[in-house]
């Protein structure tokens, strides 16, 4: 299963790999010493003396890194580059329309961030306050994030695809009193009514006192006097300098909501020092970023990938980072490749779902471009199937660019398992080995550590600097969710296989989380949206295989006794979920079920529902313990898709 990658310029292909092995050994033997050195990849205003102060044991639980050090993230991303690369392009913005491009230098970005920091202050935002961002992929999104970091405010970016209700829930949960948005977003030639969504959300957020609105399209939007302000007008009045706030390493940097296996989305909290070290170090090491190169991560800043590898990692490293406000198939299926040529992209980082979608459209779209600038390709968000990997490597990368398949999570802050960018042997579908300082283990259901070539549940045995510190407002939920399944270890929620070479192959979630196009969706969230509909009495949601999305959403819905199933109602429920959560939560398949398979104690047997959704109805296992085994026959008979 290995593919030789030809690197003509590399005389000593083995050396980087050896160095990586040595770093792994050093980090495992002496984490404190290793991070004492590598924590210096960012600039500290007050250097740390303490390094690692962590324990996953319940009695003594704590996660603190570089705790007596002080720094500012925006100073790291901006000020420290001004003397050496003030006129270098920091952000290349590429709009929805090809060639709608804007280049912002480090000096220009610094000034914009300072101005916006002053705008926030004028709105009464102070250190520790939460600021919600609901924006398209525009430069102002990075400006707003960095401006928050500059004054010590905590940003919570909400993906522009989420509904007003989802946005409102996130605003209320973190208690933010200010929202930054745009009049409208543009995606694939369509307009997204961001400001109107904010207005709808704020009907249920009485504490929000101000809304700053960026003019993106110039579309006509309602402005509420005394609450809503135009971004450009506020910026014009703001002073162009602002001293960065001195932040403690463990002060919060941002909250990012993500779906879990139960309940509503959790506010994952990342702090200042450890997160920045992790985003910066992994950016440099995994992508082997070289001065002057153009780095393009296609993720939206509404997800963690956009935080760590569009904004923080690249800018802290003085890189040129691309912000893309479009989609892979607009105006046509050649968009990525045409844009790579036009912008001279050297490193390209995207998700398997996009690769699969483009692969289906044929090689011609790719071959119209030269892609001569490309040097390295990355993949993130879900397992990449070997067929998509090969196409990415052979067609998109012309067989000459290594692929780094990077495994990580919102919770981990940055990449955890990834191949060396110099690897001469690659295994399509394997993220291969942990980065130095990451200690993965595979455990069985009882928590026994499994050795050698095996398969099990993926845990991380010890802390790393980029680790999330808590769930906003609910520390107990943090400890419960991640550290009680296998006491003393961080449980990822993923399953994985390890081969005889020690390489990891992530097999996917083992909990009730579905990975739809590389985005996490909790089955419980979709279920609660469905049962909130007046005609629904019960719902169960599971994942199903999907050619392009990786996983699709399969919903079983039991209607109220007086309601008859119909195609119209199916459409109505799909629209309902879209309104309640957003387009990414809409079920791909929706089956009306007269009853759900339950144990006598009333627990839904998801194992059976998953099998039916997968179309694997020949091996449903023992159904005799069900309260009513006959419901299974009805489910199998009426399976959809
Ligand atoms: C889940 C985390 C990490 C940024 C994007 C998603 C899956 C992520 C890979 C990969 C196999 C992957 C896992 C993980 N995942 N990267 N390279 N190979 N699976 O962040 O929304 O927090 O989702 O994405 O299942 O647990 P996220």
TrEMBL record:
The modification N6-acetyllysine is found at residue 603. Its cofactor is Mg(2+). CoA binds at residues 187-190, 305, 329, 517, 578. Residues 1-10 have a biased composition (Basic and acidic residues). Catalyzes the conversion of acetate into acetyl-CoA (AcCoA), an essential intermediate at the junction of anabolic and catabolic pathways. AcsA undergoes a two-step reaction. In the first half reaction, AcsA combines acetate with ATP to form acetyl-adenylate (AcAMP) intermediate. In the second half reaction, it can then transfer the acetyl group from AcAMP to the sulfhydryl group of CoA, forming the product AcCoA. This is Acetyl-coenzyme A synthetase. The lineage of its organism: Bacteria, Pseudomonadati, Pseudomonadota, Alphaproteobacteria, Sphingomonadales. NCBIfam families: Ac_CoA_lig_AcsA, PRK00174.1. GO terms for molecular function: ligase activity. PROSITE patterns: AMP_BINDING (PS00455). Mg(2+) binds at residues 531, 533, 536. Residues 24-77 form the Acetyl-coenzyme A synthetase N-terminal domain. It comes from Sphingomonas cynarae. Its EC number is 6.2.1.1. Residues 1-23 are annotated as: Disordered.
């Amino acid at each position: 299963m290995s593919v030789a990658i030809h690197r003509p310029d590399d005389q000593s292909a083995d050396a980087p790999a050896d160095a990586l092995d040595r770093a792994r050994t050093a980090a495992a033997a002496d984490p404190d010493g290793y991070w004492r050195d590598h924590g210096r990849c960012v600039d500290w205003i007050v250097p740390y003396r303490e390094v690692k102060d962590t324990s996953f044991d319940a009695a003594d639980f704590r996660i603190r890194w570089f705790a007596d050090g002080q720094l500012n993230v925006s100073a790291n991303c901006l000020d420290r580059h001004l003397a050496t690369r003030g006129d270098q392009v920091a952000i290349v913005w590429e709009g929805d329309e090809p060639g709608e491009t804007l280049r912002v230098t480090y000096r220009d970005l610094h000034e914009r961030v300072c101005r916006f920091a002053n705008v926030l202050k004028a709105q009464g935002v102070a250190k520790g306050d939460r600021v919600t961002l609901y924006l398209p992929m525009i430069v102002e999104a990075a400006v707003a994030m960095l401006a928050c970091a500059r004054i010590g405010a905590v940003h919570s970016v909400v993906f522009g695809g989420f509904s007003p209700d989802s946005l409102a829930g996130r605003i209320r949960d973190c208690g933010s009193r200010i929202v930054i948005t745009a009049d409208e977003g543009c995606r694939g030639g369509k307009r997204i009514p961001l400001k109107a969504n904010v207005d709808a959300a704020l009907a249920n957020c009485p504490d929000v006192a101000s809304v700053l609105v960026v003019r993106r399209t110039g579309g006509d939007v309602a402005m509420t006097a005394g609450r809503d302000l135009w971004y450009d007008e506020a910026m014009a009045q703001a002073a162009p300098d602002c001293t960065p706030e001195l932040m403690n390493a463990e002060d919060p940097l941002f909250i990012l909501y993500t779906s879990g296996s139960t309940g509503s989305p959790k506010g994952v909290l990342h702090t200042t020092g450890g997160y920045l070290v992790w985003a910066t170090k992994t950016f440099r090491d995994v992508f082997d970023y070289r001065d002057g190169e153009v780095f393009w991560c296609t993720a939206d800043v509404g997800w963690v990938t956009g935080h760590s590898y569009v904004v923080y990692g690249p800018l802290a490293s003085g890189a040129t980072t691309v912000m893309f406000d479009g989609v892979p198939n607009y105006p046509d299926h050649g968009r990525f490749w045409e844009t790579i040529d036009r912008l001279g992209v050297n490193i390209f980082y995207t998700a398997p779902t996009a690769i699969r979608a483009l692969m289906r459209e044929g090689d011609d779209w790719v071959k119209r471009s030269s892609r001569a600038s490309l040097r390295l390709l990355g993949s993130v968000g879900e397992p990449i199937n070997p067929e998509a990997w090969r196409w990415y490597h052979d067609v998109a990368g012309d067989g000459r660019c290594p692929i780094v398949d990077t495994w990580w999570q919102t919770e981990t802050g940055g990449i955890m398992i990834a191949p060396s960018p110099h690897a001469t042997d690659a295994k399509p579908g394997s993220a291969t080995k942990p980065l130095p300082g990451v200690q993965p283990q595979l455990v069985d259901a009882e928590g026994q550590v499994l050795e050698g070539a095996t398969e099990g549940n993926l845990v991380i045995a010890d802390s790393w600097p980029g680790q999330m510190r808590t769930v906003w407002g609910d520390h107990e939920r943090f400890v419960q969710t991640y550290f009680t399944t296998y006491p003393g270890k961080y449980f990822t929620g993923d399953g994985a296989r390890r081969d005889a070479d020690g390489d990891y192959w992530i097999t996917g979630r083992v909990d009730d989380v579905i990975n739809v196009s590389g985005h996490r969706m909790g089955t419980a969230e979709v279920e609660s949206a469905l049962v909130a509909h007046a005609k629904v009495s019960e719902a169960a949601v599971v994942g199903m295989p999907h050619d392009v999305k990786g996983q699709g959403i399969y919903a079983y819905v039991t209607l109220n006794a007086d309601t008859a199933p119909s195609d119209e109602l199916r459409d109505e429920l799909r629209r309902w979920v879209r309104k309640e959560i957003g387009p990414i939560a809409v079920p791909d398949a929706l089956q009306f079920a007269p009853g759900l398979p339950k144990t006598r104690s009333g627990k839904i047997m998801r194992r059976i529902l998953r099998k039916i959704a997968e179309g694997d109805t020949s091996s449903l296992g023992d159904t005799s313990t069900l309260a009513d085994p006959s419901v299974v026959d009805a489910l199998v008979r009426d399976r959809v898709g």
